[in-house]
Amino acid sequence: MITHSIRGRWILFVMLLVASLLLAACGGEAAPEEAGEEPAEEAAEPAEEAEEPAEEPAEVEMEEAEPLLVNIAVAPATLDPGWGCTVESVGFLQNFYVRLTQYAQVPGPDGTMKTDPTEPEVLYFAESVDISDDGTVYTFTLPEGAVFPSGTPVDATAVKTSLERTLAMAGCGEYFVVEGIYDPYLIQSIEAVDDLTVQITLSRPDPNFMEALAQPAASIMDPSVIEAQGEVVTGEPNEFFASNVAGSGPFLLEEYEPNNRAVLVANPDFFGEPPASERIIVNFISADETLLLQARNQEVDMTIGLSPQSVASLQDSPEVRIIVNETTNAERLGLPNGKPPWDNVKFREAITHAIPYEDILENVAFGYGEIFYGPFTPSFPEYNADLSQPREFDLELAQQLIDESGVETPVDIEMVIQEGSTAHVQIATILQGVWAELGINLTIRQVTSADFYTAVEGHEAQAFMRFDGTGIYDAGYFLGFDMVCALADAYNVSEVCIPEADELLEQARVELDDAKRQDLYDQITELWVTNSPFVPVYAVQDTTVLSSEVENFLWSHYYDFRNWSK
Known about the structure:
The chain is an alpha+beta fold.
């Protein structure tokens, strides 16, 4: 008889394995780095009988403001706006660039601010925009006098060059900008009308286009640096921009050691309001115990990516504040449908019943999440709770479905996870123990951010855990890269292909009637659930730990450092 409860049996086992895996992970164990000040030189002894003061008073050096210290668990895989895919990559790199538009800011929890992804109608670098009556022509007017550090003007040519580069790269950035609308291709042309006017013409009206231009992929880059780095190779990353930036944003990148450390300094030539902190030091530390210790001891000002368990342990600490925000993100178990055994729908369904969701929510997420099963997290307007009921943890049913699938066991599966995610280590370790009872031998491979990107986006991974969501809060945009058959060898990393759902999606993306549109997404949800394409383990509530010294914080689904300060 297969037992239904793992609580007492697996938790100790999991914790021991997690500890060993975390010790093996790469990641900073060192204390956070601060901008040290040179010791003052010893004052010269005064002359014994000096009767007159020196002709000029000694120059007094102003004390430099202390840097803001930020620890982040997961490092960016690239700094290239045209190539970045992960939240960690695009969120970090956006701080070095400007875009034509940005999200609105609204009050957040506990005196903080947050971005509102449903309100992208806020201009950022652009001074004004005129949208044609048919919604296909966007004419932006730019401010005069803005320059890149090279002295090159931030003008219409820079906008055109940057957007065309992102489209030509044909990476994740292209999808962000055209929103997965390839037939007909969304952007017909980008024209520099004059130095301060850029005009973008679309092939069809798109109510989300202003939001698309707020994405980090639409960042405005220095065309002189782009030219110096050679022509774009379609489908290939650029080695230089993987670790260098060429923007005119609020910050300059003074120092960067991939997977280790970055130093940001305020850009003195930034066109807008200066950032609240003159200097920010970011440490990329994958070891959760180090993140927790430094947060608890107030050795850092902000901690991003701390495990829910560690966050929960700080709830009663007066030295820190825990800021919680709802997101469209979920911890997801990717099951690439084109690879065995996931090409068998019965086997995929079996796995959805072989996950102890409640135990994971309690012992991994520590309540910072919500269980559901469907294509949309509960924060999506198109989410239907009745159609997205959680799957039951039932190993007997899972075994029955495996038997019906015809897949012979034992079966070996390798799961790829990204360094720095304690939750992924814990979830994977729990599944390793549970699945063994079903004849599934799971091995876990932790890799760097860059290698994780290659394995997942390159469709090399047999299975993976991924923290994933969407930058644009629109169901059509989200499913466009998460479900469409045509992208099953590209951004659709779980290789989901449900042709009937694709047809419904095409209708939903152009349907203007809210009730009819919701009905189409309900039909898609039903097809998706029946197909069991992957497993959303739980919807994530985002947590940020602030020290008591932090005065200003803006939460964004992409990191936005502009008003962070202490």
